[in-house]
Amino acid sequence: MADKENMKSDQEGIKSKKDEEEEDDQDVNSDEEEKSGEQESKKRKRKRKRKKKSTSNNDSDDVDTTGGGTAGGSMTENQDKLNSLEHTVYVEGIPFTCTEDEVKEFFLSNGCEDVLQLRLPTWQDSGRLRGYGHVVFDTVTSRNKALRDLNGKHLKNRYLNIQEPKDRESSSSRGSSNNNSKPRQQPEGCRTVFVRNLPYQGINENDVEEVFKTCGKIVQGGVRLTRNYQTKELKGFGYIEFKNPEGAFAAVQRAAKGGIVIKSRTCQVDYDEGKMKGSFRKADGSFWQKEYGNVHDDNQSRKRIKRSS
Asked: Residue 2 is inside which H or E element, if any?
């Protein structure tokens, strides 16, 4: 009897120990769950912080994309100016060895102190400037000063050609005069045309002048064919300056009908509203303006200068 009672008490003791162990395991599991819950909570907080930080960085990046200018005005006002042709100039002739900072310093040191943005394309392989681009100013006064006073000035060893930018519609229509499209309207007073699809070999300025002089009188030195001055090879395009706008009109109209052909190549002709670069060279490598006068003067002024010399 006593043995049975002892065995029963032992069994109850073993059972109670098991119950205690299970309770301990439950406590450990609950502690682990609490710790896991705390860790998850901390992770969520860290994620929220990172997300908030990322959002704030993106907001600051959005502000910087307007060009980083220090000029006054709200973000919306600056964005309007960046998209406005009235605050922008187009620059050609930028030395390839220049940096953006040097181009900006050129305008700052010449009285245009509110540069809002520089849009200067670069070569992908070298990162060097491609020699042209747009400059946006905070005020129309600085923009007009750049057009009036800085056009033709030197930056390092090159002349800068600074002019009003063309709108997208105008620039996209350049060279569109061909057999399948109607020529665009002639800009008022335009006497110069842009010609492409010229032969790359076997022609010179005299050959081109012989073809185009049937459209109207061409000014002295008015045929300018672009070349690679290292290899002396033609690039397949050029410019022709007529004495009167009627000559330019006739050339564009004839080309639109496929009527201008040089060495079996049908030329495409369009009005050119840009200004010649001061660094433009003739076939022999000499500067064009050394013989024919300042590129930024009109034809009559160049004639007077040539006679006096």
From this structure: helix 2-64
Q: Tell me the three state secondary structure of residue 220.
A: strand
- The per-residue b/e assignment along 214-230, b for 16 or more CB within 10 angstroms, e otherwise, is ebbebbebbbbbebeee
pLDDT digits (tens, 9 = 90+) for 120-151: 988 877 888 989 999 999 999 999 999 999 99
What are the structure tokens assigned to 232, written together?
């002396």
**H or E, element range at 234:** strand 234-242
Look-up of token digits 């842009």: 194
Kindly report the pTM of this predicted structure.
0.44
Span between the terminal Cα atoms of the chain, in Å: 145
Q: What would the two tokens of residue 57 be?
A: 């960085």
Specify the residue for token string 């665009």: 184
Question: And the tokens for 212?
Answer: 């185009």
**Maximum distance among all Cα pairs of the chain, rounded to whole angstroms:** 146
Residues with Cβ within 8 Å of 303's Cβ and at least 6 positions away in sequence, in order, are 220, 293
Nearest to 199 by CA among 261, 108, 277: 261
pLDDT (tens digit, 9 = 90+) per residue, 68-102? Answer: 444 556 667 777 888 888 999 999 999 999 999 99
For residue 292, how many other CB atoms are within 10 A of its CB?
21
Q: How many CA atoms lie within 13 A of 145 on its CB side?
A: 16
Q: What tokens were used for 168?
A: 């997208």
